[in-house]
Amino acid sequence: MKLENPTAIQWNFSQRAQKLQSSAIREILKVTMRPDIISFAGGLPSPATFPIAEMQAAFDKVLSQQGKIALQYGPTDGYGPLREWVANRLSTADAKIDANQVIMVSGSQQGLDLLAKVLIDEGSKVMVETPSYLGALQAFSMYEPEYVSIPGDEGGLIPEQVAELGQGARLLYALPNFQNPTGRTLSLERREALVEICARMGIPLIEDDPYGALSYRAEPLPKMLNMNPNGVIYMGSFSKVLTPGIRLGYVVAPRPLIEKMEQAKQATDLHTAQLTQMVVYETVKDGFLDKHIPTIRKLYSDQCDAMLAALQAYFPSQATWTKPEGGMFIWVTLPKHIDSAKLLAQAIEHHVAFVPGGPFYANTPETNTLRLSFVTVPPAKIREGVEILGKLIATML
Amino acid sequence: MKLENPTAIQWNFSQRAQKLQSSAIREILKVTMRPDIISFAGGLPSPATFPIAEMQAAFDKVLSQQGKIALQYGPTDGYGPLREWVANRLSTADAKIDANQVIMVSGSQQGLDLLAKVLIDEGSKVMVETPSYLGALQAFSMYEPEYVSIPGDEGGLIPEQVAELGQGARLLYALPNFQNPTGRTLSLERREALVEICARMGIPLIEDDPYGALSYRAEPLPKMLNMNPNGVIYMGSFSKVLTPGIRLGYVVAPRPLIEKMEQAKQATDLHTAQLTQMVVYETVKDGFLDKHIPTIRKLYSDQCDAMLAALQAYFPSQATWTKPEGGMFIWVTLPKHIDSAKLLAQAIEHHVAFVPGGPFYANTPETNTLRLSFVTVPPAKIREGVEILGKLIATML
């Protein structure tokens, strides 16, 4: 029955697949899962924050009361009550969001994929921050755009640069709150300017906001979505405020875009698990997040402080770093001649890991940068790991 | 704060998105959810077959024993023990499948999307059956191939036609067991011929097998995967043997393809929910499916018999239909001049629904065809609905 000596297939991959490369850094980072490594490399939330008991109760309730609905195919745009909940939560007095502007997705990464699918052609001009979220660059790159890197500073991307560089772009992708990878926040003035410039240029502005709720110093700044619901595409996620492993996020956008995304999602994975959406709705509908999020903020904020203090104590004065007001990441800039990928190789020998900054740049990488996450490491280990890194950097100066 | 009178965005959708159209049939079929409609339109399994109690127990166990792992981000290629389980289940004496040839996906539809993403360029030649599964056509079409429709008959697609028409094709997509939409099965001789021809031509053969376990008359025929694991891409799903709402399937393929798919999946949705995979593993690992699947077979098989008997009793002799040996669907061919979309409009007025056949054709639609599903309707209602359809067809002759 089995074929004798078949010829091996000469794989003829698509143009986009041929450009996919196994990342050397990803291979290195596989070792960071080892328990003897102090890892600042993760983008993972701390499992200490997962509301396991609450979700277990919700699974029990949904399965026993509505099992046949929860386990059946569901609507492509998502579970109605949860879309309604998202819309209500994002509405402000002068900018109401309607449930039909919400589409549920299998994690924000899928939101990025679907947006790229319906907005990007080969060679389309796409504006991103310098540096930008690596996962967004990966999602967009599958549709082969031409990136325009918008320069920024400590206050986030510079709106005037969008006006100067962005003519004819298909979209601008921005992560305004505690950005991944830099931890920086876009100021209120710049938000208003950015919304105004994008509206004037007719360019959809993607506001990716996975960390917005994780604000440690003050109330979060207003969302750009509410400044112009007709021109801003907002992306939210349950990964950082509930759990990432269930893969659930949402995109809020004007109806013409939601309709296209719904059609694209049907072709892509039919719909996001109905059971998951019903369980999350059951978990959050009575205000659980308002009690839960402050406990996450407290944990991460203490660890953020510990890392900032350790950097101050142990890093050489030639290094600089961001002072995030929320989120999960600190961004370090070393003297130009130090390659953080080489530093990583040495650091792993000393049982410490982080992510080199190069891959976060859409165009010209700045290889003297690196990203540190403080959320999964307790303060004592943070100090230990930062001290080791500081000494290694000192020897490279 | 809110922008005054912003200009509405003139959406500039991607070329692939511009081709997406809201399907008129899909709109019509929305009414088939009404409880007063006898619907043969669904592609849904019967919720009577969902093992709700077993899954509830599995969710409880996984969350209480391994909650922090289950709710965290997981590996892109899937949960190790479940990949191992899939590999073992698909291995035969002379064709072992290794766990590293398996990638878990968010339902088979995502498998189709990822395969298209890494194998299809704009204008690539892609072979499909006549007719073919609509969801596959939707997934592939996002990557803008040029379809080659391979003719078939009651015995499935005709292998010699592949040799004649398929030169230079990127892939052949086939659904050999109880095909959606026709219900037909590819014979053993044709399977062997097809595998041999595709291997000789160096063309990857996709064997999509969501219904293979739902065999009503005899043991399922051997899988093409096991005839040539180096040239066949096998797609399986938990949707029809467990539940569809959790969105879980798998693709089995040679390593070079799995590696590309893993990279593409990372860019597409990072990974499939770890919790779901652990729960399914917990549910199936001790042989549950071997007890459960026979109960599904019995239910569907009785309803299939009821529909075949009703067709015989009530349909005019000018109509013909397939006699499936498993799966969920019967395919009806009417006299050429009857447009099944028009028949549907009338049928809905008489509270009966089905899916017109036209959209299942990649190139030239045969509009005198239609698909009937027998799995969600009890026998008495099947007879009632088929009788109504039979009378309507008789008036159109």
From TrEMBL, chains A, B:
<comment type="subunit">
    <text>Homodimer.</text>
</comment>
<dbReference type="Pfam" id="PF00155">
    <property type="entry name" value="Aminotran_1_2"/>
</dbReference>
<feature type="domain" description="Aminotransferase class I/classII large">
    <location>
        <begin position="57"/>
        <end position="388"/>
    </location>
</feature>
<dbReference type="InterPro" id="IPR050859">
    <property type="entry name" value="Class-I_PLP-dep_aminotransf"/>
</dbReference>
<dbReference type="InterPro" id="IPR015422">
    <property type="entry name" value="PyrdxlP-dep_Trfase_small"/>
</dbReference>
<dbReference type="InterPro" id="IPR015424">
    <property type="entry name" value="PyrdxlP-dep_Trfase"/>
</dbReference>
<protein>
    <submittedName>
        <fullName>Aminotransferase class I/II-fold pyridoxal phosphate-dependent enzyme</fullName>
    </submittedName>
</protein>
<dbReference type="GO" id="GO:0030170">
    <property type="term" value="F:pyridoxal phosphate binding"/>
</dbReference>
<dbReference type="GO" id="GO:1901605">
    <property type="term" value="P:alpha-amino acid metabolic process"/>
</dbReference>
<dbReference type="InterPro" id="IPR004839">
    <property type="entry name" value="Aminotransferase_I/II_large"/>
</dbReference>
<keyword id="KW-0032">Aminotransferase</keyword>
<keyword id="KW-0663">Pyridoxal phosphate</keyword>
<comment type="similarity">
    <text>Belongs to the class-I pyridoxal-phosphate-dependent aminotransferase family.</text>
</comment>
<dbReference type="GO" id="GO:0008483">
    <property type="term" value="F:transaminase activity"/>
</dbReference>
<keyword id="KW-0808">Transferase</keyword>
<dbReference type="InterPro" id="IPR015421">
    <property type="entry name" value="PyrdxlP-dep_Trfase_major"/>
</dbReference>
